[in-house]
Amino acid sequence: MSDLPLIQADRAVPPPASTTSTGGRRRRLRLLSRTDRVVITLMVLVPLLLVTGFVWLPAAATVLLSGTNWDGIGPLNEIEFVGARNYSDVVNIYPPFVPAIQHNLLWLAALFVVATPFGMFLAVLLDKELRGSRFYQTALYLPVVLSLALIGFVWQLLYSRDQGLINAVFGSSIDWYGDSNVNIWAVMVASGWRHVGYIMLLYLAGLKGVDPSLREAAAVDGASESRTFFRVVFPVMRPINIIVLVVTVIESLRAFDLVWVVNKGRNGLELISALVTQNVVGEASRIGFGSALATIMLVVSLVFITIYLATVMRENRE
Amino acid sequence: MSVDTPVRRRRLTPLRMLLHGFLIVVSLAWLFPIAWAVLTSLRSYDYTAANGYVSFGGWTFDNYVTAWRTAEFGQHFLNSVYITVPAVLLTLFLASCVAFVIARFSWKLNLVLLGVFTAANLLPQQALLIPLFRLFTEVPLPEFMSDSELLYDSYWGLILINVAFQCGFCVFVLSNYMKALPRDLYEAAMVDGASIWRQYWQVTMPLCRPALAALATLEVTWIYNEFFWATVLMRTGDKFPVTSSLNNLRGEFFTDNNLVSAGSVLVAIPTLVIFFMLQRHFVRGLTLGASKG
């Protein structure tokens, strides 16, 4: 792959629009000096090696390891392939797996059904350019600048059983982060708090990009505001919708920081991402097993990444 | 810019008042957790323990002093600087190189290249953890670079992994931005005999300043906020960046929410400062990836 830029450099500069190009100019453009070719190669190769080495090869290795019984310590030549055994073990004899899947799906549902539409709704309201909308916007996306780990701490001030505000105000004594029946909901509220601001921002940008003449045309036709939105504006924002969809799916799949700071993803807060981490850095390092879990994440995310790439590439080509 | 548009729209109809009311309530609800953290951090533990948190009084700055001292925030902030500054600069540099080639030349594998970088940014980090963890514990570094003598538990490792991960987003945004630059520029530069490097460094890069500024702002907050890699690829408590160190420190803070909130506010301050000073860049950066222009 390394010599590709070199080969292609001959054709690298597309001929300027054919009407204006002259033979002489074309020849001159084609002549990239040797140094230029080396520079181009390096400009692509160095970052490419970094991303391949630190992201793509490990991803491939994860898939391979998921078929082995490696314990992470023994020499590599003693690895045995065990086929799909890790996967069947994950599904059949690993108690946290089913709750983790449920929690991930719940997380996705909460972000998708509650936080995302709410963010979109707020974007539509703020797009009306009310007075003071800058204040509203700032307040709503302020949580986006905080790390999710930090958000876990901030919300503890509301959730803590003995010192938290919620229990103080309502006289309850629920351990919002500790009680395995409620903590997933508590954490999802905190996560949604951040997600709403992000989605609002994306849609606000999308709404600003919608051609105003479309709305005027709809208004002339006598369409109501909500009708205009759902029939005209929303479909026009298709690329944004897909980006929001992918962002939401990936965010809920990658969710990790919040549950990890609360209780390392145990006792009611199992998530696939936390299980993978526990299996690697925790007391028991079960590599094949952890890799099977990681591969599941990888496959799900690749489906949505493909959808995303297909969308943005199509946009790009236009 | 957009706040004071048509006069016609300013008249306060009952519907508009309702709208404002709704937005005010939502905004205040959204600010509340942050405001509560600040409020709690300014009150003494003894006072709130005696009178409950729903009370008034016990104002003090002591929590900040104590949190700063017991948590060694000075060192942890420095660690964050060691990691964030090189990582952001390197990410922008490498990503702009790739983006330049993608935008400047049209060879067949352009789209593939763009896909390889963009997709890498969207993979779940945990799915790469197992081989990376092993790799990091195998790769030796000379002692002057890392006292663990490994990539594992070193600033270098964290810088590299952050760069590798964040490159994709920046390549995507920058290549879109560069594609919109007029092609004539390069033709003129070629005629003047400018090398490819000059075309990149002296023609393209200055024109990309707005995009670079937006990305820099965004990447600084992202890498500063990064939690996962630092948690799993660092071992020595003293070397943790400030975001991940909070978790280590929780044990000390556990029974004292006033201290927890002071620590949280301290950790949040750099990102909040960036946010309020460079708000326009930050917001533009977030939406750069989503919509062109």
Automatic annotation (TrEMBL), chain A:
The keyword Transport applies. It is found in: Cell membrane. Its main location: membrane. It comes from Micromonospora vinacea. CDD domains: TM_PBP2. Keywords: Cell membrane, Membrane, Sugar transport, Transmembrane, Transmembrane helix, Transport. The chain crosses the membrane at residues 38-57, 105-126, 138-158, 184-207, 228-250, 287-310. This is Multiple sugar transport system permease protein. Residues 101-308 form the ABC transmembrane type-1 domain. It is a multi-pass membrane protein.
TrEMBL record, chain B:
Keywords: Cell membrane, Membrane, Sugar transport, Transmembrane, Transmembrane helix, Transport. It comes from Micromonospora vinacea. Gene3D superfamilies: MetI-like (1.10.3720.10). The chain crosses the membrane at residues 18-39, 81-102, 109-135, 155-174, 207-224, 259-278. It is found in: Cell membrane. Residues 77-278 form the ABC transmembrane type-1 domain. This is Multiple sugar transport system permease protein. Belongs to the binding-protein-dependent transport system permease family. It is a multi-pass membrane protein.
